[in-house]
Design brief:
Length: about 270
């Protein structure tokens, strides 16, 4: 369930490829909004209340100890309401990682989750990184819009790349559904995958109907947001588009969200 507080945030960073000794200006590069950590790139900056903002980026030219590959930096995340002079949320996190693979960048990310009561408006997410060794600082501002409350798919976590034999999936919440006098909703949530020729891989989409398909013991009238998971078995290489659809039968409205998935050919001799 999505928290009801306005902003909950967790600031993390990690290394999946190392860096060499800093030889240039510290900077944040390849900054992009994604669906989850290192997830598929998101095309817009508009978010429903209950959604989350994921930023993936690279820290360029940070100081790395040439003997042991250690890098130390501090990351500050701040959220600003454009109508207010001061930040409405801030969190500072120290980081220490080993750049075992060499290179010149440290991949990193941060995210902010917002509650279902988050007021509509214009906001800014500011990420500031400080290189502990030379005290150099750099920052990036990501501007986003929170729309009015409504029906839709939020908080998508997905994986954009995989190998045959892996199981990935799409995890998300459906919010803003219409309810009857007993606080019940009527939803059909489905997933359909298209190949690189825009042809469906299956004749029928994979679908669930709620509240009928809720797990035993979960009561629909107690859910502020409906969590949904669609596993995807990667059975063959190729480029695909995953389309998610939520249909509110009581409100007679449908919302869709799609992202790209690439399955790489497994390397052999």
């Amino acid at each position: 369930m999505t928290p009801s507080s306005k902003f909950l945030a967790l600031l993390l960073s990690f290394v999946c490829a190392g860096a060499a000794q800093a030889g240039g200006k510290l900077g944040l590069v390849n900054v992009r909004s994604t669906y989850g950590v290192n997830g598929p790139v998101r095309a817009d900056n508009k978010y429903l209340p209950g959604d989350r903002i994921d930023l993936s980026f690279d820290i360029n030219n940070i100081t790395i100890d040439p003997k042991n590959g250690q890098a130390k930096w501090e990351m500050l995340m701040e959220v600003f309401d454009d109508k207010k002079p001061k930040s409405i949320f801030s969190k500072k996190t120290p980081n220490e990682m080993t750049a075992a693979l060499g290179g010149s960048r440290l991949p990193a990310y941060c995210y902010v989750s917002m509650g279902l009561d988050q007021p509509a408006g214009k906001y800014t997410l500011r990420v500031t990184v400080t290189d502990e060794a030379r005290k150099a600082t750099t920052s990036h501002d990501y501007k986003f819009v929170v729309t009015d409350k409504g029906f839709g798919i939020v908080g998508l976590l997905a994986q954009p790349v995989g190998l045959p034999g892996q199981t990935v999936g799409a995890r998300f919440d459906v919010v803003g559904m219409k309810r009857d006098g007993k606080n019940q909703f009527d939803l059909k949530v489905s997933m359909r995958v298209y190949d690189d020729k825009n042809k469906p891989t299956l004749q029928q989409p994979l679908a669930n109907e709620f509240p009928k398909d809720l797990p035993e013991g979960v009561e629909a009238d107690k859910l502020n947001a409906l969590p949904v998971v669609f596993p995807i078995e990667l059975t063959r290489p190729g480029r695909f588009r995953v389309e998610l659809e939520a249909e509110d039968r009581k409100a007679k409205t449908t919302k869709k969200l799609s992202y790209n998935l690439t399955v790489l050919e497994a390397a052999g001799k």
